[in-house]
# Entry
Amino acid sequence: MGKHKLAHASAVASLLSSLTCPRRQHIRLLRAPLDQPTSQLQISRRSFKSLVAGTAISNHPSVSAIMESIQSLLYVTVDASNSNNTSAIEVLEWVQKCSSVGQVPGAVGAYVYHATDSDGAGAEKPAWLVMWETNSASFPATGYLKTLEVPSLGTLNRLQHFRLQSTYAAPSFSSTDLHNKSATNYIVAVIIVLDEKLKAEYDKYYEEEHIGALMKVPGWRRTRRFVEEGGGSETMRQSGEVQILQLHDYDPENYGIEGQEFKSATSTQWYKDMMANAVKVKDRRTYELCGFVHV
# Structure
């Protein structure tokens, strides 16, 4: 093993020496500090209308729209079914390695999540989710993605690039809170395929009704909506369709996803109409935050 690899291994071992949980320990690996955290600008409800079309929710005092420097997301799932002992430390080390050699253009940080639905809807599906946030709205051809190999962890199952469409968050929430070593977070990741002709109607429904309903769910922190850019691997869409990624952040200490508020949010007539007419495919997963890697 070369001197560089030995030094890296020693540094990581020292940093992680106090960890006890093999999978879900919340840790933060630093490659290089930033002069300042990702900028976020709380904007007025009036100027919110220039950010997102269909703005009935902008009049609600408990929801704020956030304009972020983050413009896109590289969404990667890792199937470690053949490596049952894969730990959060190993996944974070792999993410650290990919980030340090610039394999993800424009990346500013990456989150590592572990599935919480492996005994249910996520059975036999990849257990690990890695999301690189980038400050670039465009991505190069997918050829570079071949370099993101994880032979010691398993195989890459889904690898897609999504462009940020809109962000909604509770006023008390800041994404930088999730960068702390002790940070905890649950995320509900929903990937849907829409009839392209009905996307505008779906967006209208989401912004005028669904966001307002979700914010009433105990523990809701943030919802971000992304549109797929390019095919990527495991794309589910065909010609005339559009693929959307919807990420919902929740406080694990007050997780109300099984409560009446969420049931109400997903039982309206408008919701039922969208599911029946606009949504062609839907894949929903739930995850728990394991760590954040600063790039």
